Amino acid sequence: MKEEYKCPIDGCDSSFFTEVGLNFHVKTKHGELPKPVVKSIPKKEKLTPKVEKVVKEKPKKEEKEKRLSVTEYEKQTKEKSGKLWKKRLKSMRKSMSVVKVGDKLTRAELVKLVGDSEGISHGDEPVKRFSDGVRKQKFTITKVKEMKNDWKVFHAESPSQRLVWKEGPIKGKHFVTIPIIVKK
């Protein structure tokens, strides 16, 4: 048997009968893979016409959303909610609502009465504004409950939705809570 495979590393005179033996030697003794020794076999040239390759344009990669750390997310959320709360306070009525049981209100009247809050959701669907979640239907005030602390709870119903909100004083100022929207 003839030793055909010689170690390609400079200064190493080892030779092996098989390529597997050479690979094992180089990997264990020298810590790297050998460069394959290619035996050149003359190929017969085939005459074929050259065809230009079609170059496909790669679609531009969209930048991924930057992921926020927990503290950055909390800070951003606090700032956003603070801005929404200040905006809501400015648009809030200054006195108690004068609706009573049996009153009928359109969607527009109801939104004006309660305020068009931002950043709320109802059910499983996120809603940007209160008016986006309320359907264009007539609402009837079905219940007005007076609490001991001068607050009132209002219930309004339409054929497909039920709304509940509260109003009352806190430290001399009048507040209106964000209404709860419930599907029937």
Task: Please characterize this protein's 3D structure.
The chain is of the alpha+beta class. It has two domains: about 1-35, 2-Layer Sandwich (Double Stranded RNA Binding Domain); about 80-184, no CATH class. The protein is built from four helices and ten strands, in the order E-E-H-H-E-H-E-E-H-E-E-E-E-E. Strands 3, 6, 7, 8, 9 and 10 form a six-stranded antiparallel sheet that branches. A hairpin with a 2-residue loop joins strand 4 (about 120) and strand 5 (about 125).
Question: What is shown here, in short?
Answer:
By secondary structure, this protein is α+β, with helices and mostly antiparallel strands.
Considering the chains and any ligands shown, give keywords for the structure:
184 residues; alpha+beta; Double Stranded RNA Binding Domain; 2 domains; six-stranded antiparallel β-sheet; two-stranded antiparallel ribbon; 23% strand; elongated
SSE inventory with pairings:
Elements (H helix, E strand, L loop, with lengths): L4 E2 L8 E2 L2 H12 L39 H22 L12 E2 L1 H8 L6 E2 L2 E2 L3 H4 L5 E8 L5 E6 L3 E10 L2 E4 L3 E4 L1
Antiparallel strand pairs: 1-2, 3-6, 4-5, 6-7, 7-8, 8-9, 8-10
Largest sheet: 6 strands, antiparallel
Q: What proportion of the residues form beta strands (DSSP E)?
A: 15-25%
Task: Summarize the amount of helix as a percent range.
Answer: 25-40%
What's the domain count? 2
| Measured distance between first and last alpha carbons | 90 Å
Q: Spans with pLDDT under 50 lasting ≥5 residues?
A: none
Shape category: elongated
Number of E strands: 10
**Run of helices and strands:** EEHHEHEEHEEEEE
Given the structure, what is the number of helices?
A: 4
SS content category: alpha+beta
Average residue-wise pLDDT: 78
Rg, rounded, reads 38 Å
